[in-house]
Design goal:
mainly alpha, MetI-like fold, 2 domains, 23 helices, disordered C terminus, transmembrane helix, MetI-like_sf, MetI-like
Length: about 525
């Protein structure tokens, strides 16, 4: 009976992915390939320059994120300093900021024509937290005594780190690098805002060919190249994560933090510089939202009650914000439902099936949101009710992005629960679902709350698929921001910055609440 239940739940999760992810993607790629010209796109020199720029800027941003994240990871893992919970929250904020807000923040600081390095820095900006949390999570479990033994044998601090600590950290470094590279290669809002039409990645080119040029064959060819890169990155991340889990089992998770001393104060200083670098674009955005051409001005904030200069928007900024909240709430509820069911299956299923399901759940993170959105429009009308005109269309697309986050945060907690508790409850007559309700849910409740909070802010700022699916009369705030910055007019610019600041403030408040929950409830897994 238990196997049947698990099979049905797993089939339901795979069915959701099949209908709302695999079917639309296969449909749009198939329609594009059927139009011919696929080989022509692949032999175009411009295509490979596009590929080179996409992966080149992603590699550069990954390197910057790794260099900036390592001192932060060391401080979080090994040093006891005042204000550590605040530091955790500060580095988490950039990761969950909408990409279009990140782009606007760097535009406020560096200007509209900052060039390719603005794109690299912006992509690295919101991925420092991935490196700090992923590497720091493993670093905290490494026994200091191995490095101390190397020091006692005459090795310098640098040599001891290179010969003992760094090899032990390689699984986490590899996993973090793969995930960061994946996020940077598929970045949409950052490149759209900072590229200025001069710099395009595969993601923005797919959008251009699909929406403006209606070149489905070309968009399909580029989508296949992107999917191949995504699969390679996910495979690397899965291998690194498996090695990382093995390393954690082989080492004692002892208390390893201590007050900084000696050269460790340099790490504290470097972490301070990283935090200052993270705060600079945020502060710049806030200042830009209350200034105009002639000095300080609240015209942008007052403009949230209107539709911009000469009716640029079909809804007011406030209505767009409410649309964002409604869609994000619906998406979070759906993602929690699917994610918790998937996590329960992953805990109990056999390893091979669990690995397949886990990989399937991660795939939506890397596939072009534009491809997915256009696929919705050419497939979902075949379902009863024609979801293309439904207000649930945007939440379904956003839920595909939030669900992997829910799984990644809840799954480690469920796996850490002593199975003997479940066995005892079953012995006393509790059925499988009651065991989950009485044992798993209370112990994982804080991680579920954290996943809901992070998922909500991620859905709130989702821009890729939403920009394609949201109707003008039901535009979300990120879509409204993109429209405002594409139109001339000082009021449009001020309104766009005020809307970005509003999104950012909501994000910060939610992240602080989640971080407080994390501190009270202990480890909640990682995002």
């Amino acid at each position: 009976m238990r196997r049947v239940t698990l099979g049905l739940v797993g089939a339901g999760v795979l069915g959701f992915l099949g209908v709302f992810f695999l079917w639309p993607v296969v449909a749009i790629v198939g329609r594009g390939l059927g139009a011919g010209g696929f080989a022509d796109v692949l032999v175009e020199p411009g295509t490979w320059r596009l590929v080179a720029f996409t992966f080149g800027q992603a590699a550069a941003a990954t390197a910057v994120a790794l260099l900036a994240g390592l001192p932060v990871a060391y401080l979080l893992a090994r040093l006891e300093v005042p204000g550590k919970p605040v530091l955790r929250a500060l580095i988490a904020v950039p990761f969950v900021l909408p990409t279009i807000v990140v782009g606007m923040a760097f535009r406020a600081v560096l200007g509209a024509d900052a060039g390719v390095w603005a794109i690299v820095l912006a992509n690295a900006f919101f991925n420092v937290a991935v490196v700090a949390r992923t590497v720091g999570g493993l670093w905290a479990h490494l026994d200091r005594r191995a490095e101390d033994a190397a020091r006692s044998l005459g090795a310098s601090r640098l040599r001891a780190f290179g010969s003992v600590t760094l090899p032990a950290l390689m699984p986490a470094l590899g996993s973090a690098a793969a995930v960061v590279f994946l996020f940077c290669a598929t970045s949409f809002g950052v490149v759209l805002v900072l590229g200025g039409g001069r710099y395009r990645t595969l993601e923005t080119e797919i959008y251009l060919r699909t929406v403006q040029l209606l070149d489905l064959s070309g968009a399909a060819a580029l989508s296949l190249l992107q999917v191949a890169a995504v699969l390679a990155a996910l495979l690397l991340a899965a291998v690194a994560r498996r090695r990382r889990e093995a390393a954690l089992r082989l080492r004692a998770a002892e208390e390893t933090t201590r007050p900084p001393r000696g050269a460790e104060w340099l790490v504290v200083g470097l972490t301070g510089l990283v935090v200052a670098g993270l705060l600079t674009p945020i502060v710049g955005l806030l200042l830009r939202s209350v200034s105009g051409r002639d000095g300080w001005s609240l015209a942008g904030w007052r403009g949230l009650l209107g539709t911009g200069e000469d009716g640029t928007l079909q809804v007011s900024g406030l209505e767009a914000a409410l649309n964002s909240v409604r869609a994000a709430f619906d998406a979070t509820c759906l993602a929690l439902l699917v994610g918790l069911l998937a996590a329960a299956v992953l805990v109990a299923a056999r390893r091979r099936f669990a690995e397949v399901l886990d990989a399937a759940l991660m795939l939506p993170l890397g596939v072009s949101a534009v491809t997915l959105g256009f696929g919705y429009l050419i497939t979902l009308h075949l379902l009863p009710g024609d979801l293309r005109t439904s207000p649930l269309l945007v939440p379904f697309a956003q839920a595909l992005v939030v669900t992997p986050l829910v799984v990644r945060m809840v799954l480690p907690v469920l796996r850490a629960i002593d199975d003997r508790l479940r066995q005892a409850a079953a012995t006393l007559g509790a059925g499988p679902w009651r065991v989950r309700r009485e044992i798993d849910l209370p112990l994982a409740l804080r991680s579920v709350g954290a996943a809901a909070g992070f998922g909500f802010v991620v859905a709130l700022g989702e821009f890729g698929a939403t920009s394609f699916l949201a109707r003008p009369e039901a535009a979300t705030l990120p879509v409204a921001i993109a429209r405002l910055i594409s139109r001339p007019g000082e009021l449009n610019t001020q309104l766009a910055y005020a809307a970005c600041a509003l999104l950012m403030l909501v994000t910060v408040l939610v992240v602080l609440a989640v971080e407080r929950l994390r501190v009270r409830g202990g480890s909640l897994g990682e995002f």
